């Protein structure tokens, strides 16, 4: 970051740390273990320990000397702060050295030799080798992938010079590669591209590794990449059989925390036997446990793909190890663990025969355990996984390792904790411990509400039913409503009102829950219809149905909460005075009650960009509060709305309580709003249309009619110079370009700090080039077309106007599969926020560089007058929080994308030109559909007040 930000970042982070004790791998005396580049002598060990202590001291001193975050401090403090930042960076580099062997492969090999010699000198190990890993985040762009490819090739070449050409490959160092670094779209749905572009890269590295007589292991990454990684693995093994039959150095890492791991081991052995190829495969427990749990919850998967009890992972590890040892004819097993209990079980299982497997540990971890193992004369081979890279690439790896060291359940963490006794440390995983179970993804909202079920399209087997449904999907043509139809509909709606209003709220809520169940059951055809009629991509279609289901269940619960009758005054719950008050609250001799009641016939007008979710949300909110509804969907997506209405009727909502009236906004929409007797209007769409509706309502005779309007936004994303570029790139591409930019929440303006602007823009450019603009029917399509030709023409004109005041930055390629009315994702640089003139409802991003005070920037953003979504990317928490507090914006997101608000978690809606509120999917939405009633009864009317005499 720039200097000011670096100071603010250091102050923010140091403010939270306690530096008296290090969090890294603790040695015997509780201090950081020593590593020596050239000399493993006692002197150097002491020196390194002293450095570690010094870094702690520097950090805690730094903490005191830094100015307040974003502080206005004196020059002297600021000069001092710069020195402190320098010291902090140095301290962090020391921490990084704990886990990273070298900044270059040459340096790592040299230092590795020292480490090997040191370990061998201690005795008890048959050999010590390295497996080098090139640090870095996964590739976002083709340039990233090429860079990683070059660095792997360079590393193998350097290792080749060092390797013993005559020795068995297992006696030499090896390399571990991450396929996500070698291809920016290493995803199962892109397996065609992966096989065409990534497989040749992996093969090139294999050829090079075989020629150098070193091993090559494919690291195990996220669970959703397992199947695609196996396609690569199978293809490589088949090719080794024909082209490199002498090489037995290929393999992959397998994660025992995956519930599929045992089948995976069996598959790998079967493939090796089928091709008569010998492999070297690593068994790990797995490094992304927290990420897998979060992903499964976000996607609403039926179950977790990983075990949720630590001891289950430990047992599965041993079961997988047993299966691997049984495949020793084709498999050289590599057991990676720092857990002494697991190591003991492995050695016991293997017996005296120890030449067909090795143990592995990470550089910087578990040295104490392995030293003891050596001392015990285990006579086993050891390989150390040794990351190599520059400090700037360290972050993701360091975070993983610190998580691993910091997790309470982790062996190394418990080992460093003196309060954990030997019994607990080495308790057998077969000893079943009672631990609270993690709720399933469907249960994360507690017993009151079931989370909607999603689909993981990364699993090939899940995709086919959707593609089949699309092939058979028909979009029905609906007749347009006439003026007479509207009048008739209102008559029926009003006639149906009293019965529906008087239906108990629990019954109305029950109907909503039945609709939710029906939508869940018919997820597949509904998604197909959304893809076909609204041109949404498959993941967007699933998200659409899920959001509709969430609205239904959430409002069903909310209605039963808010429509309960209350006695007034309501006690102030936290007031001790009230709870100890011996008398009834309020005026004696009377009772006061409060309740909500339905208003009448509501008009609900919804947009095409969420043709099921917003349509359903509006309709069910009005219905569950006892209103009747005249629903007008967008003219582009009536069939989806009809499918939803059919489900409401099937679930027991009377036909006249919910009627669908299809047609254009100017005719049917305006006609409905203008009808006498409209009790309220709920609308989502453009600010201009909302204003027209408001004018229409204002000019009507009779009662003043309430309007709930959710409209557009000029949504900004602010990136300061401390933000992580990869995270920003992901967030921008998702928020600005996915769904073809056709979301009200989409990011329209990227405000990026000038110190990092070039890097960030380059990365976004490269990542955008990887998007596939195509037909949403294909699962690999990222960006579909705009909704219709009229929208495309309007957007075209807006882009022309933008070009007159902005500098083009990039435009993605339009794929051969792109449909008519498609707009390629594109970005333009503007000089200032004053140049943002209008919302462009398409994948068009405006980029502005900023510098100076974040407060001034926030004032400019607020001055745009819209207030829907805002993204903030900063690693300075206090700064991000301060900006969020300043923002006059309904939905603020820190360090993530700005789309996909979840019902009940991120109630959605803004202020100013972005809408009236209340927020959809939030606690104040339903009351706006209601009248409020109080009832006062004079209980002393008969002449006395008995209660007072008691
Ligand atoms: P332990 O403390 O015994 O086990 C910790 C592990 O238990 C956690 O990592 C987690 O997976 C699991 N766990 C924790 N809590 C729970 C819970 N509630 N329910 C279920 N499981 C839980 N990891 C990868 O993912 N891919 C790789 O390619 C990879 N390569 C590696 C290579 C080497 C040489 C080494 C040593 C590690 C590698 N790792 C890799 C990291 C590895 O997954 C972790 O280091 C390992 O999980 C730590 O296990 P342990 O036996 O040392 O520690």
Terminal Cα span: 72 Å
**How are the strands of the largest sheet arranged?**
1-2-3-4-5-6-7-8
| Computed Rg | 32 Å
Judging from the principal axes of the Cα atoms, what is the shape? globular
Largest sheet: 8 strands, parallel, barrel
Helix content: 40-55%
Q: Provide the structure class.
A: alpha/beta
Q: In percent, how much strand structure appears in the residues?
A: 5-15%
Number of helices: 32
Number of distinct beta strands: 25
Distinct small molecules bound, one entry per kind = flavin-adenine dinucleotide
**Low-pLDDT ranges:** 21-41
Average pLDDT score? 91
In a few lines, what is going on in this structure?
With 950 residues, this protein is of the alpha/beta class. Helices cover 45% and strands 14% of the residues.
Task: Characterise this structure.
The protein has 950 residues and is α/β, with parallel strands linked by helices. Helix 8 links the parallel strand 3 and strand 4. Helix 20 crosses helix 21 and helix 21 runs parallel beside helix 23. The radius of gyration is 32 Å and the shape is globular. The relative contact order is 0.08. About 2% of the residues have low confidence. Bound molecules: flavin-adenine dinucleotide. Flavin-adenine dinucleotide (FAD) binds next to strand 4, strand 5, helix 11 and strand 7.
